[in-house]
Amino acid sequence: MNEGSKSKFRLGATTLRFWFSQRISRRMTVTNMNHSQTARGPLVRRHTVWTRITHWVWAASVFFLIFSGLQIFNAHPTLYIGQQSGFEFDNAVLSIGAIETPIGLQGRTRVFGRDFDTSGFLRLSGPSEQRQVRGFPAALTIPSYQDLATGRVVHFFFAWLFVAGLFSWLTASLINGHIRRDLIPTAKI
Known about the structure:
Elements: H1 3-32, H2 49-75, E1 78-80, E2 92-101, E3 104-111, E4 114-117, E5 123-125, E6 132-134, H3 148-176, H4 178-183
Antiparallel strand pairs: 1-2, 2-3, 3-4, 5-6
Helix pairs in contact: 2-3
């Protein structure tokens, strides 16, 4: 281990020791106090308002990106590896589909060439009398009905909102010194 990595390790160990000591002392204070008293210390805001707002924007954006992305995946439930889709060859990494069997429709998921029965969840979902053939169930997609156009609009809107939140956080963090002060590693212990 070189000297730089030792100082980083010491910094991490010191931080962990401080954090654990604070947690233990706070827990001991709470257990030793009367139940009628409240154990409140000073409110410490570790991040600026801009950092908190942009992080919540990111969290909401990621939520909508995931579930609208599942809606988009329902339109063509196959993911390919490489630069081309598998028109003349099979380069599918993940494929979700339904096949007809003697007992009726069955949901099938193929991952790297290996088939799995996923009836009831992937590709074939809903109550047995109203089975729907779709990649992901309606409860996991935004919008819940099958609509590629709306799914793409929602997906791109929240993608741009995510990017706008990133640029506003970056600008605010450069102005208020958060990046220089808190994110760039220093040799101080």
